């Protein structure tokens, strides 16, 4: 399937505004497995050259062998014309050993390890219950230069859901950064102004990913005219002042912020439920949304750094060859993607998006 087939857009008269960047990467992707993997992978593979693949499958990816097998399943359903490279991660548990971590990193199976506080988010029940107890693993990662990627939310059910990120940063992240002063850390899906400050204060060994949706919605959006289950994700969207701080941070040109879409597909029936699950499928509309934000903020000249350079620098890899063009040409986004006899609702699906994906070259 070609890019034009996946992301159709109407031709416009005259020469529309456009921006051409090195091919970008997505440093936080949930591709799932089986039929869901096959349904969503083409969108991420069309938008991004590489993706950091989240390990929160059921059961989670905790061994080198499981990660290598998962990578093969991804490559087996990758569209024929795609060179998308999945970068695998290890799901840390209370039983992860430093040796397994190092082996997977040296064998180039793992690019990073993922720390979910137990129960913090979707499929995180096998996560870490004793984060200080992870010290031997984190010390080894520090020694070999392997990044840890953190879902930063407190898990104490007594903590207000809108405060969980802030409490985690104060009670858990700052002490962890102090204990492991050389450890490379990505604070995933940053949602608050205070977390932005923490990332900046610890750069360059700390980076932060920001999702398209947290740049576009605030917590009121979840209740706009009624309950909006397709805008529910974790960390939950915060107040408007936080959204504005995120927009300012990503468009600032600071090297510590980079793309991590957190595209997290779930079938509609799992979200439109009495107890709907957390996660937004943003894989098909990520770049169109990010570039719109940069356009609205008058920062198109800084888009390439956020999309294509900062993350690669943090991970210590070269930026991609090839280029991708985004065009300010409206396109009606499809509403959903089919999987088996269900559908996955697309973030901003059914809307007219002001920006479209244009030409992509691979070298
Ligand atoms: N973001 C989400 O709300 N959900 C993610 C997990 C995560 O990244 O926290 C998922 O796997 O569905
Ligand atoms: Zn998360
Ligand atoms: Zn995620």
From TrEMBL:
Please list the residues that make up the active site.
262
According to the entry, every stretch annotated as the Amidohydrolase-related domain falls at: 26-329
Q: Name one GO cellular component term.
A: cytosol
Cofactor(s) needed, names only, are:
Zn(2+)
Any one Gene Ontology BP term: 'de novo' pyrimidine nucleobase biosynthetic process
Q: In which pathway does it act?
A: Pyrimidine metabolism; UMP biosynthesis via de novo pathway; (S)-dihydroorotate from bicarbonate: step 3/3
How does the cofactor bind to this protein, according to its record?
Answer: Binds 2 Zn(2+) ions per subunit.
What is the catalytic activity of this protein?
(S)-dihydroorotate + H2O = N-carbamoyl-L-aspartate + H(+)
Superkingdom as given in the UniProt entry:
Bacteria
Gene Ontology MF annotations? dihydroorotase activity; zinc ion binding
Q: Which residues bind Zn(2+) 1?
A: 28, 30, 114, 262
Q: Which UniProt keywords apply?
A: Hydrolase, Metal-binding, Pyrimidine biosynthesis, Zinc
- Residues annotated for Zn(2+) 2 binding in this entry: 114, 151, 189
Q: Which residues carry this modification: N6-carboxylysine?
A: 114
Residues binding substrate, per UniProt = 30-32, 56, 151, 234, 266, 278
Name the EC number(s).
Answer: 3.5.2.3
Q: Which family does it belong to?
A: Belongs to the metallo-dependent hydrolases superfamily. DHOase family. Class II DHOase subfamily.
> What role does this protein play?
Catalyzes the reversible cyclization of carbamoyl aspartate to dihydroorotate.
HAMAP family in alphabetical order? PyrC_classII
Give the quaternary structure. Answer: Homodimer.
Task: Tell me which NCBIfam families the record gives.
Answer: pyrC_dimer
**The protein's name:** Dihydroorotase
Organism in which the protein naturally occurs: Lichenifustis flavocetrariae
The gene it comes from is pyrC
